[in-house]
Fold these 3 entries.
Entry 1:
Amino acid sequence: MTPATAGAAQRRKIRVLIAKVGLDGHDVGARVVARGLLDAGMEVIYTGLRRTTEDVVRAAIEEDVDWIGVSILSGAHQVLLPKLRRLLDEAEAGDIRIIAGGIIPQEDIPALCENGVSQVFLSGTSIAEIVDYLMRESAPQSKDMT
Amino acid sequence: MEPAELRRIARTISTVENQADGTDEVLAQAYRLPRWADVIGVTGPPGAGKSTLVDALTAHWAANGERIAVLAIDPSSPYSGGAVLGDRIRRTRSVGYANTYFRSLSSRGHVGGLSETATDLVAVLSLFEFRRVIIETVGAGQSDVEIHDTADCTLVLTVPGLGDGVQASKAGLMEIGDVFAINKADLPGADDAMRTIENALGAAYMGNPGISPRPNIPNPVSSSYAVSPGLAALRRRHGNFGEDDETWVPPVLKLVSTDNDGVPELAQTIDTFIEWSDRTGRRRQRSRERAYAQVMRALSALLLAPYARAPGAVQIPSAVDSWVERIAGGEASPLEAARALMNKLPR
């Protein structure tokens, strides 16, 4: 191991894009989750409000993130989340995974998971649960992460 | 840029940022480029409007078809090593330009206003044929001045109402600007803020803002006075009025970035400075300073590597831990510890 690569394992951080898509102006939840992921040592990029799915895909690619966390309270999740997945796959960014949270009815979750959303966290979920999930699920893909 | 190319750029940046395998090869290639992108540093206190201005400047230059990249740095948590990177929120005007690339970076514990690898990343972006790179520093305190030798042009951004004339006379941030700008100039106090900076600059510079030719009359200030180190440093950067054919006096501009007021003029001023700096050899001199600072940083990282604690780790490496214990217990001094550890460094 050359000096430059020593410690690379510890340097690698889980990077998460926290995104708000469409006409949805409430981001308290998104910011609370961002803060929680920061406390867990992750690097969180926040898109700001009212982004298009195209913007979010571009941001995820430019920022080289492992995850996109979509906070959605508008009711448009069944349209926007599958579209986000499709655009990512078309951009050959199929390895970037999506989690979602917000106001999402229980009965919609199976369809979302079939359409490329890895996990849905409903209101009431603790930050620790989200952190646990991301840590656990990030580990096998990035073997250099401890 | 197509998604595939953006991905390649983004992943190469991650490689270098994480100092993962392949870093040495990428950097060896990047640092051998005959010419780098023009680097514009934007610095200033938190809330001055750096992100909004960077977005406006990006859109301005991108509209001319230039390939332009932004590196936006935000601080990392000293406790968890994590970060919330929020500069992208302001990427609204530039987001529609396919010839732009924006990357948020965590400072990852590095102090000085940049991240450890920021300068390396400029080299990497040059490899991907970016013509221009804008670096947005963390919200700068008075001593976050590392940008001044990384950037070809440093813009110090401030806003009305931050303090009186004494603030402008202080060391640090106020000394490193090639161009100054007062953002939110529609707020009361903008003229005062402008005057304060101009007065502070007036104590160190002669001539008019921008490029000044050598005057026909001899320098009225006798050259027999000793030149202070601070003044000497400014002269190295901006020339010596009365001696050199042309000198630079940092202009102070007023802006309302949200309305794009003053942004085209600012972009023009930055270009004028970089062109002047190039033509007069000052840019090359600055890149020597940058290279020296980088060698020193790389050297200290290599020397410290055996003793360095992994980012975010709690455990102190064992060789240092016994000394730490003795110092905390009042049995040794940090200097004794450092000397002893230095002697044990592998040769």
Note: The two ends of chain A are 18 Å apart (CA to CA).
Entry 2:
Amino acid sequence: MKMYKETLRKLIPIGVPLALITFIYTVITSGQNYFGTYVISTSQTAIRLAPVLVYYTLSGILFAYYGFSYLFRRAASDLYHSLPISRFDLYLSTTLATATWMGGTILLNLLAVLGLLLISGCPFVPAYIPMAMLFFFVASMLVYAAAAVGCALSGTLLTALASTGIVLFVPRFIQFIVARGVVARVPIVGWLDLPALLDPASNIATGMVVMQSRQVFVSRIINMPNTLYSMLPMLVLLVLGAWLFIRRPSETAEKGTGRKVWIIATASLLALAALLLITVDNHRLLSMYGVALVAIAFLVFVVYQFIASRNIKQILFSTPWFLLTCAVAFGLSLGIDATVENILGKTPAPTEIASVQFRGHDEKMDNLEYTTMLLQEIDFTSDSMKKYVSETLADAMDRIKEKDFYAFDVYSQYQTIEPIAITLTSGETIKRTIEFKNVMELNALREEDSFFQAAIRAFPTLDSIQYINSDILLTKEESLSLLTSFISESQKNGLVPNSYYRPRSQYLDDRGYALEVNGDQTVGRINVAGYVADKRIYEYYTLRMETPETASLMMRTYNAYIKEDMFDRLAQALKHMASPLAIERESLSVNLDFYNLTNQRGDRYTQSVNLYISGYTKHDEAYAGIYLTYLEKFVEIIKRGTPTDNADGMFVRFDWFEYDGTSRRQEHEPACYLAFSQEDEQALQALIIEWQTATMI
Amino acid sequence: MITAKNLTKRFSDVAALHNLNCQIPDGCVYGLVGANGAGKSTFLRLATGVYKPDEGDITLDGIPVFENITLKKRFAFVSDEFWAMPQSSMERMASLYSAAYDAFDHKRFTSLAKEFGLDTSRAIATFSKGMRRQAATILALSTGADHYFFDETFDGLDPVMRNLVKQLLYVQVVDKGATVIISSHSLRELEDTCDQLALLYQGGIVMQSDVSDLKTSLFKLQIAFGHDFDKTVFDGLELLSYTRQGSVANAVVRGDKEKSRAMMQQHNPILLEILPVTLEEVFLFEMEALGYAFDIAQGGN
């Protein structure tokens, strides 16, 4: 206990500055997030509660090196080992003191976040706090444990650093390379389809490094299985560190890695890592590339040993170890081949499939759609689905085996890639990410399932929605009112709110435009996010004319913001842009969306007209002439419009934007919805055609 | 009693100590002398449980020392290079020592620091080499140990401080029955301090004896005759060395002074003087007698 307190005090130069820096960083960044305007953009997954803690985990190295710094100086090592404290107690006191500092700092940061969340009123999942606490603590201690092993093995800071890197990263690098080999060679197996042992994120300390380059892991890294799994290597390394520390001769100080076996083992691991690069681009060890890689690996093997021991005789005698390493690499390469063959060989017949689970088209995203969350709970067991999945999987396998794996039809907009989990009748579950020819066909099959029908029409409860916005102009209450109306109208009409699962079919209309069958004109969006239990969910709801009451409400809501002098200011802006006084960096953009126009087939559609003029585009006289002319013509009619909330008749959504690049002044006029007399409607439709013809030229 | 039996310690392929045997009785001041690389520091580190023997063992009262915390509480080791934590003061180091030694005496620490004139709150990094050694000695003497190990500690101290340290050690030995083991490459440094001396040479103790015995057992005999003579006149004496210049002969003899004088008187010398030898000369002659080359000026080199 005395030595623990003493070591706790000794670690103050590391502990206090890091605690202060992380605390200040967390308070500032979290404060910005929780009190800022764009709160919705903050993804509140547990790992993002205090992002600086991701980097704080590396402090395990600093604590270990500072705590065990006496191992790198002979005089210091002799002093500590002459004291009446057992080596185990020395190790234990440093480990416990480090755990106290790191645990305390992590707790301090998370408490700061918790305080800010409570003060700001930002919603959050309380469970994230203890989850993040445990996660970051295990990650930090895992890094510390690796560094402690490095220190116990080495007599200098440099070799300790190298040993730490090797202990922490080389096994994971080898695992990563094997996983990469499988993913590269089987296009239908993605990172999220890999079994847990090959999952690069399962070891949370190194997983946080992997997630820097593979975003797919960010939202998945904090979970209890990963945290509990990582406790195992953490404990193993802590015990290994203690074992090595107890056996570490004091005379190792200032002498690098004195142990011959460790030098050879390290050289072999480094060579193995180099040899396994063979799998990256699907090469074979028995090839020219493979031979070159063996040469490089041998160079690594020799150079490392030379640096560590400078003993040529030892290097020569260690050659059999390199051959053994090559054999291991070859074995692993064969292992990857076998794994690949095993995956490719698994094309279950429909009768062998017990159920199919769809993991969601957005599984790789930071947050899941609410619909996906529900979808993941459904086991599809219909024969038609089993047959469809079995055939699609077999087809994908065939194309892989033919080494001709490409999209079914690069021009088709209906093909889709979805991750699935197939549970076989044998009880085995296989995960694949496969391409389906037609999402409509897939959805039709899925709609045979009543749970799926309910899932794609379901909305999260309002109390689980923490963030909502539809437009920066609208208040939260206005957005919520729109959402309530949208939910009510959708549920009343049995509509599918999530665009991905809506029936889609397009045709070319008389003007040559691709239109949806039973066209759904879009009038706006509502973005919602929140938490269902400890899961973060979001949905982007598109408001369409198929919910006319909501569309009407939205029109009313926007029109409440109309300013009386809107057209006068627009006229002035127009006049200015037409005059020679307009400089290059000034611009005016007028956006007009004409709703409920009717094509020859009788379908309603929306026609957008964007009229943009700037000082720069005025250099093109023909262009400027057309745009200025039509700006004036359109505005002349538009200004006769009256605010409307009738979503059934023809109306125009109108807004404009003025920008001065020199002063960076910008004026964005809020959108408004206007209706017109029958004469003006006809005039506008004629003008649209006239404008389209003019701009076509 | 500290006992080393067939003690061997190797560094890579080099044996720093090889089959070393010795016994250090309790309550004495034991000096280890030897050249650089003779194995003094290695021996002290083995004796204090810093190093683990490769072969043989070193025990205190028959119990192995290595990783024996109960025994190590009775040891205080002052290394040849005192290390202090970065930016630490003596007080900070005292805190480390008191965490390790239950019997660490803060009062004694404070009074010793005062006696040495050291500021315990000052960063040790700003201390001179001598002051660092004093600091290390003060810390060691405050531990409450009864076995003190000093590795070339006196070498960096000025005469005043050296005497102060020696006095403090004598107090420990006389009043508290402590055992002090001091290593040095300079025999002169240990001559007037130690009760027992051991000479280390190439990883082994080649000679070990009470200082008083060493000094009294050898003497120099200077003799001249009025007639021609040869070495046979010394028959009956144990000669360690014999030289002759003209009619004067010099011999180093082991044995009883008075008996030797009486024997020589029988030959009617015109000159007969018995001179004492220095400890260094004792070592030189004993070593030569054992067949080792020993350079006094270099402490054995």
Note: Chain A touches chain B at residues 2-3, 5-6, 9-10, 13, 70, 73-76, 78-79, 81-87, 249-251 (CB under 8 Å).
Entry 3:
Amino acid sequence: MKLYELTFSQIRAGLSAGEFSSRELTESVLDRIERVEPALSAFVTVRGRGEILAEAERADASRASGGNPGALCGVPVAVKDNISTRGLATTCGSRMLESYVPPYDATAVARLRGAGAVIVGKTNMDEFAMGSSNENSAFGATRNPWDTGRVPGGSSGGSAAAVAAGEVPLALGSDTGGSVRQPAGFCGVVGVKPTYGRVSRYGLVAFASSLDQIGTVSRDVAGAAALLEAIAGEDPRDSTTAAEPVPSLLADTGTDLTGVAVGVPDEYFADGLDGSVAEKVSDAVETIRSLGAKVLTISIPHLRFGVAAYYLVADAEASANLARYDGVRYGHRSDHAEDLESLYRMSRSEGFGAEVKRRIMLGTYALSAGYYDQYYLKAQRVRTLLARDFERAFESVDAVVAPTSPTTAFALGERVHDPVSMYLSDVYTVPVNLAGIPALSVPCGLSASGLPVGLQIMVDKFREPVMFRVAQAYERAAGVDSSLPEL
Amino acid sequence: MPGALPVLNEAVVDSATAVALALNASVSKRAGFARKNYFYPDLPKGYQITQHAEPLARDGYLDVEFEGHVKRVGIRQVHIEEDAGKSVHAEHGGEGGSLIDVNRCGVPLVEIVTRPDLRDIDEADAFLNELRRILVSLGVATGEMHEGSLRFDTNISVRPQGATEMGTQTEIKNLNSFRAVRKALAYEADRQSRVLRDGGKVVHETLLWDESSERAVPMRSKEGASDYRYFPEPDLVDFEIDGRRIERVRESMPELPGASRRRLVEVYAIPEYDAFVLTAEPATLRLYESTVGALLERLGPDAPATAAKTVSNWVMVILRGHLNERRITLAELSARAASHDPTGGKDGASALASRLADVIALRLRGEVSEPAARRLFDAAMECAEPVDGLVEKLDLRVVSDEDALRSLVRDVLAGHPEEVARYHAGTTKLVRFFVGQVLGRTGGKADPELATRVLLEELRSGGTT
Amino acid sequence: MAVERGDVEHVAMLAMLAFTEEELVAFTTEMNGILALFEELEGVDTDGVEPAFRVLRRRNVFRGDEPGEMLPPDEALANAPDRHEDAFRVPAVLPND
């Protein structure tokens, strides 16, 4: 077995037992990137080999000097390209920010560095995190490692593909409406969207501020828990972070789920759900039941309104968040401008791709005079109803399980020209962001056509430990094949 | 920068609460922020964080004394928002254009919005001056307009005489002085009147005041471009202004200028004008009251009824003149006085008050003449020596020896036979000339009253020489 | 309620975006399709339901009145497309008529 094939749990054991060094692990990972990256385009930027290996050696030295190195010390990590990294380009997958280099680190990145993680590079994404396929990247679409004719999902498709292909064991993504969970499901890896406010958004380039949350991508549940523990917690620079202390997220409770009540919402298994996805998810529910969990049928009545409410809220916030890209202080500036207004208009029109413009237009429209009540305010009221659906569910169950997406990875080009069908593919993931609750996607096997299927586990706010417990019990019991796709 | 987030500074919540209380506004229990969306180069995020649906306070008023009556100006709301940057025209640097300085961006400020209650430029001016005095006394603004610590946006509309409906208003931004407000209001009232007289319609728009050309230039021209698409700011959480905060702010608030003025008139029996001037700056008011206190201590029961008015004259005229001549501020003078304080225990204001009271006490006891007292004050500000000692050192004690003065008078008259003759011929105003000569020979130390009396006696006894 | 070309042009003006003639026509059709999806919300009874806006109930998050760390001007301006000393340069803000 090659070092790049190891999961986080195996890496942690190997590093602390001294079976291999961070330098050896990192070299293996970098070789893997060199070999598979041309077929995948999972990264926008990979840092220089020399700098990366120097950091790995520092981690080795710190481990050798004793003390108590953190779980991430010397572990290679990739960072989605909308999370600010000091001195390292942060493009957001956009022409607009092609040459933008942040002068500061996002809080999550600073915490990763503090924990000794080795940041290898920045992963590809749908432009400004707007998309569900990674086809909206200005730097070329990322491919799904399981079938390079298919999309990896989005918008954290680069992070999911990189982890799935063994280019890196851990990665950060961001999840505004499913952008970590959906690609994790499509690529057969674990993706976590924490409680809103669990992780600081400081330095995360904003798409929709009330929905955005930095999340994790990993091959195993243990990796997700370790990565989230490292980046979570209150941040004085982000007023919306939660004051709640971050508990230990993953106790080793084995596979016993006795005493855990799991709800399965009818609405997630209705029309539009792919047969092979339904089959795998139902099998997973049976496995969970067999581990001692009590399984109940529940209802999320407003599920089908989630997509409309989500896109209205997200696009309205995005229309303001993306107003700062005007060609004045950073980012693309048009060469064709004659005056100030044309500088704005030309720079924005040249710098943004089609989907970003579409969302800015929709969001601007939803907030404009005469439409605010009908669209934006209505969507925020429906959001309350959806959040109440979950509150009611969590009165009787500890976790809600459902498919992550209605289908497996679709073909490149299949939906990119049909925004409505693309938006509808987010139906199972957006309610979580609207309600602010945490959710995790864990692989639950391959479909008949050999594509990964994701099982989504949702819990109440700040109850991540239950989510990880169910996920890890399932992961162990199911014995999901953790071998890498052939590339 | 992409990814940066705002955090609310608690001090601005207290400042805004103090302003709201001073303006008799009702403070909301809960307040929140919104984004106001528009593109402008001095607005780096493309939106301004402000308060829209949930301002900190609403519905206040301010009573302004204006031309002998009290004018009540309604306050629509008091809210917090972030400052924008500033753009300056690039004259150098080759290609022209504008330069954007974003250093001020995101700094919190308190905005006060009035109701359309002001009817002319003088009223507006009186209101703004009173508002400025309040803000300075609260410590919310330094009042230094050129530093941008206080800025005005004005809305103005005109209507034909007798009309009951208000006309369409325009807003003028970027007014950085009282003078600019007057100029801009006059400019815009005139422009709108001409538009209406020519049968046109005033367009509701925002104008920028251009100080150099003294014109108001439209900021945004396109119809409908001012659809600000307000929505709640997701990056900030709501905040509560509970009773405890209000009490704490209220307790830390100083007496407001209006109340100070009424108190000064009542307690010290000084004219309203004096009270008005003395309360313009909190430091001046403190100095005045400490000086009166110190002076009464020094004079004891002999203090004349006019002592407080004398101090007022000293603070308003002599001290002000001293500062102006030296181009220093009251704060600087106070610091200097403190550095001269032999005990080292006094703060600047009380050290200054103490020395000022010493000088005025000598003057009121008749131990120094008025010009000598002024010289004494100037000298006392430059050194650490006790004022009593300085009088002797500078030989400033009044010459009250009548015999010595009489011989001096005789000398003067003897030296000016022609003038004496003209005096006797009816040019009585020459008395001032003779007194001046006498005082000059004493170096200003002679008591001018005594000198005048002796002089008149000598002139009357006529040509004893 | 169908959106017309003029509406799209107005929204583009507010959003500071420029579209070609073709893009405008295509976008008008596309926007109507997406708005039809949004209009499904009309069927939801939201009488008496408060809008959510923010999902956390946290309040009163403040910072102290002290200056934080400052970016040196050279770093703050490093990404500027056009810089003059410590300022960003743009075409004239006020028209030079």
Note: The first helix of chain B runs from residue 10 to 22.
